[in-house]
Amino acid sequence: MGATTYAGLASLLVALYIWYRKTSTTPSSASLPPGPKPVPLLGNIRDLTTKELWLPASQWAKQFGDVTYLHVLGQGLVFLNSPEAAFDLLDKRGSIYSDKPQLVMVGDLCGCKHMVAFTGYGDESKRQRRLMHKAFGLGAIPSYHPLISTQTNTFLRRLITSPTEYVAHTRRYAGGLTLNVVYGYEAKSNNDPFLSLAEECVNLLSNKIASGGGIWPVDVFPALQHMPDWMPGSGFKKNARVWKAKMEEFVDAPYEFVKESMKSNNYQPSFCSTLLEDETAQATEDFEFNLKWAANSMYSASADTTMTTVSHFLLAMMQHPEVLLKAQKEIDAVVGDERLPEFADRERLPYLDAILSETWRWGVPVPLNLPHRLMEDDVYRGMHIPKGSLVFGNIWAIVRDERIYPNADAFDPERFLRSDLDEETKRKMNPRNYVFGFGRRLCPGNNLVESSIWLLLACMIATLDISKARDETGKVVEPEVKFENPIFRIPNPFKCDIRPRSERALRLIRESEIL
Ligand code: HEM
User: Fold this and answer.
1) Segment 84-110 mean pLDDT
2) Is the CB of 371 under 6 A from ligand 1?
3) Overall average pLDDT of the 302-311 stretch
4) Distance CA 185, CA 191 (A)
5) Secondary structure, 3-state, 329-356
6) DSSP alpha helices (H): ranges in 321-480?
7) Centre of ligand 1 from the C-alpha of residue 442, in Å
8) Is 443 annotated as a binding residue?
9) Whether the CB of 436 sits within 6 Å of ligand 1
10) Does ligand 1 have an atom closer than 6 angstroms to the CB of 303?
11) What are the pLDDT digits (tens) for 23-45?
12) Domain 3-53+61-226+242-402+424-514 carries which CATH code?
């Protein structure tokens, strides 16, 4: 190593130290929440290297209690590990806990700062969320039922044709449903250009741009964004330019499709077209800009969350054939074998509802929520939480809490059907209170997926047998379950045997084609 490199390293360390001292002073006499011991200067950087961060975060919860604090170079990270702590702060104190980190790399250089999940707490995020609420509020959902049924039938047909491609079919279902609902666009094949673009961009977002919580060195030292392209270490700028162009295409292309089809008066009603025709919505500030980004945000948010839900459902059914059998009996008794389940059947299928609840609890799609940024210094239960901290609702720790869910690692839908549960316990156990996030940033797609995933599971249970795959010698192949995505808990593709339950079921799926 040359002298210049040593000098460079030394000045970087000095700058880091000055910055660390500047950001780590606590103005309050209350002490920080407990957490694993940091090392000088770098803080807890070594505690944060694992991809499944929710696993160590939940060990810290057991060791340190409801609120855990770590820092990396002075940037505070707070984990809220119980329903009480998450609601007290993210919900009841939502006016200061609903901001998002303003990240130079993700927001500015890659152009994602207008995507709802990344917009700071203020007028823009409120306007976008209002538009989404208009389209996906509880009252609006029944108008999507026909679309949801069509997409579900299409998914079933594809699944029985090539069951080993369940990942591609699920992505196409999620992407196709959102494209349909949001843009009125009908995806033509698994390789549809909009679906491929979405998959590429969602993958870019969660595995590259926002991987590791989206914090890049340039977020710690914003001046790095001005370094010349020829300088070693400036490669992130080149990547950002390529990624930004892709993300812009992802926002513009489907939106332009809606506008073009509306011009030619040949379009299917959708979130975009409905709002483009709504004069009161149009009168709001920056209407088209907000609409375009709100639409894209929904598209981005639906694919991976649906993928985790379906994958965990398959895993649970493979590992618990008795659950699948019991659910099939319930559906047979209520629906019969002359038709597929419909929304009107829902009230009479409590076991199926319990399976959906348990799938979301056991297979929690976003285990650490998305981080919220604290806008002011705060004191909670005598602990000082510094302004600017990134606050994670530790959903994983909550839905694995043995005090709320005894034998929490087991997949057990019966836990929701116990007759001795009072209303308060039932409310506390309902995973929907946690898995969609908290307070003013709560997932705006929750009502939509409550319907769409319900029908998907109902139809899969009604028509399919799902079991572990077998090799050529007939030996059972145990599914290999690995998680590599740091934000969404999506198992890598695994082997699985999916086939129609009976000749009658096969006919029902095929007949649904001509509905
Ligand atoms: C099983 C399915 C889903 C789950 C478990 C889920 C979960 C979540 C969670 C945990 C958050 C973060 C909330 C917070 O910051 O407190 C979120 C945000 C979001 N979700 Fe979902 N989601 C699902 C499906 C969807 C769908 C289908 C859409 C759109 C149609 C959607 C749109 C969004 C958007 C736009 C945000 C950002 C909200 C904001 O920051 O203000 N999600 N979701």
Assistant:
1) 94
2) no
3) 92
4) 14
5) HHHHHHHCCCCCCCHHHHHHCHHHHHHH
6) 321-335, 350-362, 395-399, 423-429, 432-435, 446-463
7) 7
8) yes
9) yes
10) no
11) 444 555 679 999 999 999 889 98
12) 1.10.630.10
